[in-house]
Structures are given as structure tokens and as C-alpha cells.
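[recover] target loaded
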């Protein structure tokens, strides 16, 4: 009776629930393999270089404030005057700053994993306003009688100085000045600096309005390249052959062109947008976090990597198993052929093993080929298994063909970045509509009776 149908549907639902266990284990395996990729990236960064964040130009005026303090001798309790020196820094941002970057991309291999790396040819140029510099020097001198201004320097910071391929030369007005290791900034010592002698003479020159500078540096990095827009007006241009850029940071490009052959992007940032003056003033007092985090740049990514694609695929695993069981059950009803719950379970496991095949194959061959091999293998296995079960060979071919079509639709869904949810919802709707259309004329009360009779016949045959 109807109790027999309810028991059968309950068993099918229970089997489907149990199949969530292997699907969860496969999902955990994907997460584990993705963590191995992150370990490979860390290994490559140790031998190559890590992501680079560049602050391309900052003029630093160091000065000492001399004062006398009273010191008490701990043994004799005698007091004496001692000269104390306190070092301070004044940062001067460029009035105009331009950064042109030509990026050459490649990949590095670590075992079965590939990691995108790059070599960037960075051209930096700009100008310092003479009047602004002169006013800051006067303020420093006027701050006290015991103030000594030491040699100013031009500072560059980098995330990983191991990536410097060639020693740059600073073109400062008509002079060529050598860079030295270290940025000489307390908050971030990684980088370069160039001492600027005779800067006082330049500020005394009434004919000068701007002090121009430029330099070129070749820099290696991994995945990400970003810049700190320290100029009052900063312009950045980046060109690369990488077809999948992700623009990151506080500002998106004002214009960009992305093709299969690469990308070109331009940024224009003013001090009103970046609040760079306030960030520099806070950095002078030792709070530089906001300055170095306010960067803009590019991350070179795969639009959808194999682990993300595999994870997306597994998320549709329960839907596939549900559709397979539903199709199986409809065949059972239409053909009036009882199918044992164990056979449902084996069909479900065949669907689950598809995801394990996919992730293992995609680590060694392209994801598309791996997907094709895994789907054909599982569809072929089910065809071979269902031929004797469904009695008529054509039904086994029908089932395998439907499953292969579903695999093809799923591949389209997981390959999409923006329309994946919509396509997945549409697939679910279509599948439900087909099931409702196929079963609209079935009398489920009669189905329950037939299942009861068939079960009794099978039990009698078994006893005999």
C-alpha cells in the first residue's frame, strides 16, 4: 500500500543523506589541496620574492633637537648637565608623481603547482615644489635655537628588496646620485635611499620653482604589485601581458583595457582623495600604518582556479545525486521494475567519485580535459552498470545521456563568474519542471500498490 511507497522514498532519502558524507570528505580534500597550493606560493616567495608594495618617492628632512637634561649619578647622587639629542623627520611629498610600469609575467613551478610571478620595469618621475620645501626648512630652523638639520635624503620603500634586479640611479636636477640600501625610515626599513647634498643651495635659487627627479628600477615580485600614491597628484600607468588582472586597493583605475593578450590601466589620484598629507603627518609621529596601507595596484590571478572550480562543482553534488535518484525512480515507476536501495546507493557513489576524479586529474592536466575524462568515465560506468538492471538497453543509454548533458551544463555554470548562481537556479528549475511534466499522469496510489505486490513476489522467489 502507500506505506510501502513511503518506506521506499524514505530509504532513498536516507541514502541521499548518507552520500553527503563522501561529498563532505571530498570538499575537505579540495580545501586541503588548496592549502598545499598556498604552501607552494610561500615556498616560491622564499626563493623568488613575495608581493611588492612600493612607495616610490618621499623626500625626508632629518633634524636633531639638542637640549640639556639633568642627570643624577646613582652612586654619588651628584647632578650634572648632559646634552641630549632627539632625532625627528619631516616628510615632503612630491607635488607631482608619475609611475609607468611595464610588467612581464611568467610562472614558477613547485611540484604540480604553478605560481604566477612577474618582473616589473618601473619608471618613476616627479617634482618637489621649491617654495614648499623652503618653507618647511624655515619652520624647522625656527622651531628652536638648538636645531640641527642633517643631510636630507630621497627614500623608497619596498615590501621585499630581494626583488631588486638592478641598482637604480636617481636623476636629481642635473645630478646623478647613487642609491644606498635601506629606506632609512624607522617604520619600514626595506627599500633604498639617496642622500641629497646641497639642497639648501637649491632652495635659495629664486629661479627654480620645482626640483625634478626620476629613476628606473627593475623589480621582481609574485602575484601582486601595488603602489602608495604619496604625491599631491599621482598618475600611475601599468601595462602587462597577463589576461586576468584584479584591481585592488583604495582606488580603481580611471581607465582600463583588458583583452586576452593583457591589460592596460591608468590611475589618477589627488591628495583630496587619498588624504595623503594627513597620513604623512601621522607617519612623522610614528603612526605609518595608514600611509602604507593606502595603496593601489594589481593582482595577477586565474579567473577561476581549479580548486575554486572543483569546490563549485561539489556544491552541486547533492543536486546531481537528487536528479539521478529522481530519474532512477521515474524509470522504476514507468518500467514497473523494482530497483533495490543498494543499487540507488551505488549509482550515488558513482556520482560522488566523479568529484574525486576531477580534482586529482585537474592537478596534472587542464581542468577542461580533466572534467571531460571524469564525466565520460562516470557516465560510462553507469551505462555499463545499468544495462542489466533496466533490462532494456535503451533506457540505460537514456540515463547515461541525460547524466552527460547535466555534466556539460554544470561545466558551463562553474566556468561563469557572474552568472553562476542564475544558471544554477535555472538548471534546478528546469529539472523540477521535467520531473513534474514526466510524472503528471502517474497515479501514486496505484504505484504504492504495485510496489507492494512486486516486493511480495520477489520475497516468494527468494524463499523458493
Amino acid at each position: 500500500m502507500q506505506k510501502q511507497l513511503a518506506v521506499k522514498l524514505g530509504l532513498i532519502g536516507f541514502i541521499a543523506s548518507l552520500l553527503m558524507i563522501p561529498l563532505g570528505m571530498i570538499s575537505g580534500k579540495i580545501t586541503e589541496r588548496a592549502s598545499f597550493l598556498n604552501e607552494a606560493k610561500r615556498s616560491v616567495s622564499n626563493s623568488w620574492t613575495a608581493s611588492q608594495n612600493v612607495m616610490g618617492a618621499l623626500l625626508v628632512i632629518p633634524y636633531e633637537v639638542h637640549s640639556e637634561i639633568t642627570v643624577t649619578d646613582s652612586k654619588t647622587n651628584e647632578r650634572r648637565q648632559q646634552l641630549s639629542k632627539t632625532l625627528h623627520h619631516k616628510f615632503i611629498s612630491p607635488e607631482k608623481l608619475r609611475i609607468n610600469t611595464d610588467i612581464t609575467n611568467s610562472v614558477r613551478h613547485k611540484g604540480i603547482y604553478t605560481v604566477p610571478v612577474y618582473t616589473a620595469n618601473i619608471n618613476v618621475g616627479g617634482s618637489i615644489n621649491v617654495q614648499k620645501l623652503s618653507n618647511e626648512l624655515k619652520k624647522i630652523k625656527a622651531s628652536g635655537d638648538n636645531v640641527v638639520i642633517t643631510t636630507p635624503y630621497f627614500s623608497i620603500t619596498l615590501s621585499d628588496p630581494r626583488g631588486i634586479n638592478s641598482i637604480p640611479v636617481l636623476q636629481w636636477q642635473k645630478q646623478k646620485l647613487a642609491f644606498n640600501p635601506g629606506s632609512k625610515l624607522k617604520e619600514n626599513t626595506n627599500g633604498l635611499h639617496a642622500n641629497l647634498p646641497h639642497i639648501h643651495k637649491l632652495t635659495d635659487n629664486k629661479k627654480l620653482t620645482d626640483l625634478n627627479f626620476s629613476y628606473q628600477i627593475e623589480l621582481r615580485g609574485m602575484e601582486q604589485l601595488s603602489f602608495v600614491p604619496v604625491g599631491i597628484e599621482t598618475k600611475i600607468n601599468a601595462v602587462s601581458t597577463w589576461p586576468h588582472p584584479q584591481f585592488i586597493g583604495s582606488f580603481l583605475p580611471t581607465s582600463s583595457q583588458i583583452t586576452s593578450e593583457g591589460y592596460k590601466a591608468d590611475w589618477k589620484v589627488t591628495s583630496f582623495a587619498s588624504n595623503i598629507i594627513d597620513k604623512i603627518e601621522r607617519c612623522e609621529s610614528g603612526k605609518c600604518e595608514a600611509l602604507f596601507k593606502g595603496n593601489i595596484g594589481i593582482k595577477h590571478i586565474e579567473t577561476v582556479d581549479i580548486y575554486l572550480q572543483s569546490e563549485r562543482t561539489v556544491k552541486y553534488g547533492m543536486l546531481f545525486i537528487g536528479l539521478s535518484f529522481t530519474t532512477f525512480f521515474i524509470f522504476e515507476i514507468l518500467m514497473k521494475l523494482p530497483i533495490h536501495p543498494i543499487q540507488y546507493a551505488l549509482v550515488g557513489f558513482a556520482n560522488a567519485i566523479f568529484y574525486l576524479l576531477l580534482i586529482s586529474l585537474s592537478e596534472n592536466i587542464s581542468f577542461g580535459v580533466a572534467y571531460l575524462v571524469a564525466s565520460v568515465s562516470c557516465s560510462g560506468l553507469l551505462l555499463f552498470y545499468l544495462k542489466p538492471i533496466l533490462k532494456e538497453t535503451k533506457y540505460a543509454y537514456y540515463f547515461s545521456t541525460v547524466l552527460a548533458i547535466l555534466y556539460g551544463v554544470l561545466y558551463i555554470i562553474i566556468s561563469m563568474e557572474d552568472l553562476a548562481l542564475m544558471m544554477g537556479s535555472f538548471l534546478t528549475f528546469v529539472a523540477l519542471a521535467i520531473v513534474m511534466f514526466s510524472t503528471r499522469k502517474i497515479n501514486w496510489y496505484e504505484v504504492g500498490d504495485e510496489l507492494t505486490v512486486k516486493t511480495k513476489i520477489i520475497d516468494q522467489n527468494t524463499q523458493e
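[recover] notes: The first strand starts at residue 52 and ends at 72.
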